[in-house]
Amino acid sequence: MKREITKKENMGCVLAGKRPEWIPSFFDDCAFVHSIALDRKPGQKEGRAVDVFGTEFTQTVDGWMPVYSKTGEYALCDITKWKGVMPGISLSEVDWEEDARLIKAMHVKDGQVINYNAGWVWDQLHYMMGFEEALLALVLEPEACRECLDAIADFWIDAMRRLSKHLKPDLIMFMEHLATHRGLLMSPETYRAVIKPVHRKMFAAIAELGVPPEIHVDGYIEDLIPDFAEMGIKVIQPFQVMNDINRYKEQYDLVAIGGWDAFGPGNLEGATEEDIRASVRLSMDTYGPAYRYVFMESGLTPKFSGHIKYIKDEASRYGRAYYK
What we know:
Layout: H1 7-15, H2 26-29, E1 30-33, E2 41-42, E3 48-50, E4 56-60, E5 63-66, H3 68-71, H4 96-107, E6 113-117, H5 122-129, H6 131-140, H7 142-167, E7 171-175, H8 188-208, E8 213-216, H9 225-230, E9 235-239, H10 245-252, E10 255-259, H11 273-287, E11 293-296, H12 308-321
Parallel strand pairs: 1-6, 6-7, 7-8, 8-9, 9-10, 10-11
Antiparallel strand pairs: 2-3, 3-4, 4-5
């Protein structure tokens, strides 16, 4: 009797571009984790949390958002003074073995692929400054901006190396929100001049650990996909439908995690059960035939959380039978 392969073995087929036994459903087959030791901690004010860079966040229906988005309380107002907001935590004093143990105990189910979110640099900058000031800094103070981003990257790379020794992740990603569904937040030229050199170092550090480099980046990013491939990125998550996903999967041997249309009928108020299930099947039918695909319902509107039971059920039912 043939042994059923594990979720990790099936994901290995996906990453290698081979025919897997089924289309993985990201949140069922993968544990999306980050360091607990470096996670945001409760702030001094009720309902707030603070990160290791001193930025305060508040909970909203769409998740944790920097406090400045409503009050203008920036953690960093002058990019040339970035050294004042660098973390004071000593990474050598963190018990990384215990951090890995807690992550596995709290967030990883038996057999799941460990997808480790190791940090972010551009995101950290706009967390601290706000989007407008961060975008201005890219253009008006590119050298100071590059120095700041480089220091943030060094922090997260150091933490990643320490934690990975004990966590043994299957995928490692850095999270960078560089675009909306309409296009990039900055020009490709600005990205390449200021951010890309920092990204190159970050994703090279992942590759040095023998783990496929992955980027979490939403929106319309086609102008940067050649840059991602040139830096050695192997996985884009969540690869969203405003991009020509199949074209870039084939052209650069990329693995796409995503492919669910967050702007389609399956993510609308009043969507029927069949609308929602059909949106899952459409994703798998569109991106599954050429392999290198993992379904992910990224962009599901939180206030439509009742949709998730149909999405998960259809992703399991249809995805498990897809290649059979």
